[in-house]
Amino acid sequence: MTQFEKPELVCPAGTPASLRTAVDAGADAVYCGFKGPTNARNFSGLNFTKAELSESVKYAHDRDAIVLAAINSFPTAGRTDLWKNSVDDAVELGLDAVIIADIGMAQYVAREHPDQRLHLSVQAGASSPEAINYYVEQFGVKRVVLPRILTVAEIKRVHDAIDCEIEAFVFGNIGMMAEGRCSLTNYVTGVSTNMDGVCSPASHVEYEPDENENLTTRLGEFAIDCISCGETAGYPTICKGRYDTAIKKNYYAFEEPISLNLTRLLPDLIKAGVTALKIEGRQRSRAYIRSVVSSFREAIDAYAAGDEPDISQLIALTEGGKETEGAFKSKTWR
Amino acid sequence: MRYEGRIDLSMTKKTHRGQPRIFRDPKAGPISRALPLFPLQPVLRRIVRHVAKIHPELFERLETGAFKTFLIDAKGIPFLLVLKPDPNSPTLVARSRHDEIQYDVLVSGKFSTLLQMIDSKSDSDALFFNRNILISGDTEAILLLRNALDDMDTTLADDVATAFGPLAKPMRASINLANRITGARA
């Protein structure tokens, strides 16, 4: 294995305890959001108050880790102050970067806080050099989080044509949606993934077991899957449900429950110019954070030292007990 | 048995979401009926009140979940636990498996699995994906409770230890014993 310079390991945190766990497990950077709709993981009981984030930033900085504020949902008319206030709070608290998706928020950060490091969220859906360079030139974006739709070869071509860092997802949830454009949840529940920050809100999810422990999953008034006893389950999202279609019965029409795992592609990604490796999962528990972050810490360190890492334990944490390299390896993975 | 999932716009079935449900256990055995639960109640009361006292931040993250009734069905344990984490008067009581119990959320799994989840030694999403735990009822309430518990740095064993002072050692041994027995049986 060729040795390389270590990339930044960017890890999720939904609570202060998760943030401390991520830092202790070897994260170089932790990304998190304020409570409310300003971030794309606005789940019940998750995220940080301003006071919690202040303490968390201190905890991370004291241990040479940085903290990134995800303010990456899209403000709707009449609510922009909420997003602006979150940006102001993030700057005041000394967050090391603000991750935005909305073009108006990019302009707000660039105008009001020109010294604040700005990252472009995956929710912006910027996958072409033209789109990325626009954000770089207009707003001074320093890093783009690429949508999970590019092969490693395409990432290399993007890298060669842009003037900012690349952050790529390497583990966690993966769907077929166009990032930042998915309206499936909105269609069924009236709550928007992109503007309210929550996909399949728990308030609209119901699991209905029968006496044999078969499980029907409902979102709103719709049954989106029926899982037999002993069969693995996935997230209660429309894109991971099974449907009768003209092609097949009882079919994962969009995507099956599966997690992205790019451990084996890490050297290729770094050679392609990826600066930062991102783990998905701010909605997951401390146990997940501890296990995934420490596994990737070991994998990166092993590759950097020219060794082969042991990644066998990660499969236990995957959705549906299955993993994929998705579009990163081939556009024909389904 | 495999059901066919479908999006069916004509579906008229109403869900029970947001409404309390009634638990009945048709498989409840004779041990459950004969088991006296009254010696257990003061122990459970002490545990829940102690946890509430030393983790006031729990209730901020619990939000509306604090006013829900959580029914805990630990497989292999001959009784059920009912948790009401109301910050003004939190309760945890043992109930017979022969009782009809009103609840908002039902969580079931091996005792050892549930303990690992509470102490964040196992990821609850992964436990759910792998069907090691089963939840039904008010999904938002269980998510609130999961996230509130996950933000605690201590373990239940730690909290029991501080709740019972000199009796901590036998209490911890009891938890470990139940963990081993139910982990093997259920």
How is this structure best described in words?
The complex is a heterodimer of chains A (334) and B (186). Chain A folds into two domains: 8-174 and 258-329, Alpha-Beta Barrel (TIM Barrel); 184-240, no CATH class. Helices cover 31% and strands 18% of the residues of chain A. Chain A has helices spanning 16-25, 50-62, 80-92, 103-112, 129-139, 152-161, 184-189, 266-271, 286-304, 326-329; strands at residues 8-12, 29-32, 66-71, 97-100, 118-120, 143-145, 165-173, 205-209, 215-219, 222-227, 259-261, 276-279, 323-324. In chain A, a hairpin with a 2-residue loop joins strand 9 (215-219) and strand 10. Chain A is built from ten helices and 13 strands. Chain A is globular, with a radius of gyration of 19 Å. Chain A has an eight-stranded parallel β-barrel, surrounded by six helices. Chain A is an alpha/beta fold. Chain B has helices at residues 30-34, 41-54, 57-62, 111-118, 124-129, 139-150, 156-164, 168-185; strands at 21-23, 70-75, 79-84, 91-96, 101-103, 105-110, 133-137. The relative contact order of chain B is 0.17. At the A-B interface, helix 1, strand 8, strand 9, strand 10 and helix 9 of A face helix 5, strand 7 and helix 6 of B.
